[in-house]
Amino acid sequence: MPLYGEQSNRPKIIVVMPAYNAAKTLKITYEAIPHKVVDQIILVDDGSTDKTLEIARQLHLTVFVHTRNYGYGANQKTCYAEALKEGADIVVMLHPDYQYDPTLLPEIVAPIKTGQADIVLGSRFLAGNTLQQGMPWWKYAGNRFLTTLENWTLGLSLAEYHTGYRAYCRRVLEQIPFSFNSDSFVFDQEMLVQATHLGFRIEEVPVPTKYFAAASSASFFDSMIYGLSILFLLGRFLLHKIALVEFRQFQSLHSRYRRVS
Which domain holds residue 34? Predict the structure, then answer.
């Protein structure tokens, strides 16, 4: 049954942009967003050294500033915390590097608005040949290996887990203890492991991507560290799942509150 069927019950949709040195692409990303379906845009600047902050303020975005570069995961923690404070019903995370198509935002939020999903991922692998779109072969190989392993561990059949275009309903962000997550790039995967463990529904929407010089891209070394971090995450999750070791990271915030009370 649709959660937001009536106009009077229209969800408040907030786009969050975790930004770091995105001056070259921020404006074009912002201009491509379908603003009629978005209530607010929050940008968190993670210690950029270019003009990202200046451009964000010129665009009249809601801006929060980290005094130094704390990391991609730390940036998202601020994004989601501030979006919840602003009363968001649906939070869309969109990278400001113009790699993912902002015009598809209505398609990204639709499954949440109709009550079909709690989380929606914009999948590159449902939108054609990613190698032809410009994804480096070593990223493609790593993505395929890790996705297969994650699907096996979590009992899912997602096309990919490693997208930077995703939407969450408010309930997900209120229950997942994301403050316990990493400040690095593995944060995204921790969110999906937590969400699956807590029973949230995940849908995917095809999203073509662009690969170009100004778009953010992790190096081969950073990608290796990222891959190893995911293996460590899955290992921790399996230990928690079989009750050998209990990790607070995989417990619902609501269940912990009830236990304390």
Answer: 10-260
Structure tokens at 148: 């297969």
The pLDDT tens digits for 117-139 are: 999 999 988 876 767 666 777 77
Q: How does strand 202-206 pair with strand 119-123?
A: parallel
Q: How many CB atoms lie within 10 A of CB 116?
A: 13
> What residues have CB less than 8 Å from 119, skipping those under 6 apart?
112, 166, 167, 168, 169, 172, 192, 195, 200, 201, 202, 203
Confidence of residue 260 (pLDDT cuts 50, 70, 90): very low
| Beta pairing partners, 45 | 19, 65
Residue 31 falls inside a structural domain: yes
Specify the number of domains making up the chain: 1
Per residue in 182-236, pLDDT (tens digit) is 999 999 999 999 999 999 999 999 998 776 555 555 666 787 888 899 999 999 9
157 found inside a domain:
yes
Question: What's the DSSP call for residue 176?
Answer: S
Per-residue tokens: 51: 């003009």
pTM value > 0.90: no
In this structure, is residue 4 part of a structural domain? no
How many angstroms separate the Cα of 41 from the Cα of each of 13, 31, 34, 160, 193? 9, 12, 11, 26, 27
Tokens standing for residue 115: 């009550």
CA distances (Å), origin 104, targets 32, 83, 209, 254? 9, 20, 11, 33
Torsion over CA of 143, 52, 41 and 252, rounded to 10 degrees?
A: 50
